[in-house]
Design brief:
By secondary structure, this protein is mainly alpha-helical. It has a domain of 184 residues: Orthogonal Bundle (MetI-like fold). It is built from 12 helices and no strands. Keywords: Cell inner membrane, Cell membrane, Membrane, Transmembrane, Transmembrane helix, Transport.
Amino acid sequence: MNTLPVVRSPWRIAILIAGFTFLYAPMLMLVIYSFNSSKLVTVWAGWSTQWYGVLINDQAMLGAVSLSLTLAAATATMAVILGTLAAVVIVRFGRFRGSNGFAFMLTAPLVMPDVITGLSLLLLFVAMGHAIGWPAERGMFTIWLAHVTFCTAYVAVVVNSRLRELDESIEEAALDLGATPIKVFFIITLPMIAPAIVSGWLLAFTLSLDDLVIASFVAGPGSTTLPMLVFSSVRMGVNPEINALATIILGVVGFIGLIAWWLMARGEKQRQRDRQRAARG
């Protein structure tokens, strides 16, 4: 049986190249201009690494980076805990009174504009401060609460989709053999949804690290995150130091992505070898 050769349209290839160029050419220019010796980012004056040295000695920038990383890690951890519990309630507990309202309120932050979410949380914190005296002032803790609020919704959606794909017969067999529901969750369910939990943690970490709008509403003096600092710096003009920082972030993200791709490729090859051994056996 003859098979027709696959004909690739040159227009599709051209559109694909144009799309990737539009996405990644600005990043490439940013990396190149991070090695520019001129203070003006639009004027090339030769190769230099001086802005990386300036970045290392910039205590305000390093403080913002440390604060953002700490917030992102704490937010992702709490969002994973709450999001996983919420997903388990939605998928495993079935229909209960208020289940539709619970699901709606859980997913509402996904479609709520950041301006509305930030303003609502600001009004909430101010009202609570006047009513009960807590929080006394806005800062890192209020940013953390705000980030957990909207990151939990993303984690719940990721874990929810994974839970619906699981075979419940394994859990039911463990229950029939005398295992308690708590033990079944930690010994069977949790390992099977671990990839979704890791994905949710990484997603929440990225969202928290990248947030600007909500953090601007609920932040206080001395709690400037990295996006807030970068935005305030860019408003006065693009600083070559920002290019150096962005280049480092791109390098770290690219390195982590490369490791993740290598691990997934390695795991896929191992699964293929296992299937071949099972077929031969």
